[in-house]
Amino acid sequence: SFPADKRSRPTARTSAGARAKASAPFDPFQAELTTMPVAQPVKATKTLEQYQITMRPGTADILAGQPTPILGYDGRFPGPTIHATRGREVQVTQSNQAGRNLVVHLHGGVTEHASDGHPMDIVGAGTQRVYRYANVQRGATLWYHDHSHGEVAQTLYAGLAGFYIVNDPYEDALELPRGEYDVPLMIQDRSFNADGSFRYQLDLDMGFHGDTILVNGAIAPRMKVERRLYRLRLLNASNARVYGLVLGDRRETLQIAADGGLLPRPVKRTLIPLNPAERIDVVVDFRQFGAGTEVILHNPSGEATTQAVMRFDVVKGGAEEAQVPKLLSELETLPPVNAARKFVLSFQSAGTAMWQINGQGYDMNRIDCRPRLGTTELWTFVNNSPHPHPMHLHLAHFLIRSVDGRPPGPADASWKDVVAVQPGSTVVVRPYFDYYTGVFPFHCHTAEHGDNNMMGQMEVEE
Ligand code: C2O
Ligand code: CU
Fold it and tell me: Which of 31, 289, 448, 454 could form a disulfide with 293 if both were Cys (CB 3.0 to 4.6 A apart)?
């Protein structure tokens, strides 16, 4: 039972799109998987790489002969992939030609306040600003996306998302698959109007759920893979959909990394849960399949049209040099816990309906907690609502301490920046405030929840 959340209000459904004629769902595996263009620095030295990106409208070729209008980084959907290197600064000049105010957040980035992409810290329409990323953190699959206050559901849906991959000399020394065998896969759901445009329908409770799955901007595509090892960097860049990914007839994959980079050891997975904003890197050994095999990555728990995610078409491969070491990384020893805090997640239906943390909606002038730099804390999330909340902290990565009193499984026992808190459940995490001081938000990453006030602020102090 959810005492704090009894309500009978019907689900909010607004938007002109909801009334427009929708097109039928599409056949999967028609399109070839594409990879996003790799952003090229305009200037690079040993210590600094500078990029120039323009946020602007564009079109995407998703449906045959019917361009889909999008809003994208460099006008692309998805945006270009930025490859950064640990210890080498990246500066991205983001120029806003989108005709509206925007904010760029590097999700999972250990970023100083001025470049974090705080929801109120806008790049005004027609202006530009330089975001600085020191890349002090270890290797990890990050992503950048819009963070406009109250409008992420629209801007993310319109296309403002791209990968940002931190390469790490330590990781390079391992013999993991690399180059063309290291594949970023951005998974999103969309619906379409009959004219080919994205169809959006506000659902304040569940968040948006589309009827079609896209990977790297193509409808359930197919990809030729050689009989060898591949690293797949899975990112759920959907507004709200939760995936439970299965390869073929429940084949084993090896998870090697989570949000914050390499796990201590690889973990066998036959079901890969992927909550909004989460990243999971798996290595798949396609040598277990004969040439000519078609292996489907699917989402069995989805509705009928959202079960096919993509297909791997296995072809012959050359000699394999990559391997997955038994030991991937080591967790550092952490400073002791300095404070314990509790955050109750609930829905407020009286008056203006909104999602709340500790009975309050987001207020940019309120600081909810003041962690001290160089310490760890215990944060307890209690979900008193009937929907899951993928809770995300800017700046600080955390370890999951417990889920309903039990320690996490091995795949969740390393650095994370998103944790799903299920209805009625209690999750304790241990963030480490190890790099920067300043004001940073924490929020639910279901875009429609974060937009509707499910956000707080911490100020990390000296
Ligand atoms: Cu990916 Cu504040 O979010
Ligand atoms: Cu939520």
Answer: 289
